[in-house]
Amino acid sequence: MILDELDKAEAGADQSIPDVLLNLLEPRTARSFTDEALDWPVDASNMLWITMANDLRKVSDPLLSRFSVIEVREPTREEMIDAIIPEIYSEILDEYGLIGRFGEEINQDVCRALSQNPRTARKRIIQALSRAAETGKTKLDLADLGETGKTIVRRIGFGKGGG
């Protein structure tokens, strides 16, 4: 079972997520855990749990004590430029069927401009590829990135006086 952002688990109406997890992480109580959705006991004692959190200070000590903690540091700017952004770019080309439409390697100037974090870099690469495709380009350049870090807001729906 993989749980992302454990540090953002909120208390529910009846039980908090951490309280339920404590029961699931203890082999004795996990053997006969009653799942609300299934409405019958489930043996969850052999589950392997992997959780992720951005801020361990927000995870309770009792819950944290049941995990082996492996800290993953943020990538350095050099790692972003040399490895992560080129990999994200390749994955996006593959995911969107753009292999052959755009160059296989991303411009180093573009990599340097995208070195904030992987999530932001991915979003900006997709936006840049869209801009480049609109103009018929086959390679990204700095102009395709648009304004640094700006979120593009598009409105949809019905407006006054629309036709």
User: How many angstroms separate the termini?
Assistant: 50 Å
Biggest sheet strand line-up: 1-4
Question: Rg to the nearest angstrom?
Answer: 23 Å
Strand content: 5-15%
Strand count? 4
Count of separate structural domains:
2
Instruction: Please tell me the overall pLDDT.
Output: 86
CATH class of the largest domain: Mainly Alpha
Strand count, sense and closure of the main sheet? 2 strands, parallel
**What class would the helix/strand composition place it in?**
mainly alpha
Named CATH architecture of the largest domain = Orthogonal Bundle
Number of helices: 6
- What is the third-level CATH name, the topology of the largest domain? Helicase, Ruva Protein, domain 3
Helix content: 25-40%
Shape: elongated
Low-confidence stretches: none
Order of helices and strands: EHHEEEHHHH
What key phrases describe this protein's structure?
about 160 residues; Helicase, Ruva Protein, domain 3; two-stranded parallel ribbon; two-stranded antiparallel sheet; 4 strands; elongated
In short:
It is built from six helices and four strands; from the N terminus they run βααβββαααα.
Describe the structure.
- It is a single chain.
- With 163 residues, the chain is mainly alpha-helical.
- The protein folds into two domains: 2-64, no CATH class; 77-145, Helicase, Ruva Protein, domain 3, CATH 1.10.8.
- The protein contains six helices and four strands; from the N terminus they run βααβββαααα.
- It has helices at residues 17-25, 27-30, 61-64, 77-95, 108-113, 118-134, and strands at residues 2-3, 33-35, 40-42, 50-51.
- It has a two-stranded parallel sheet.
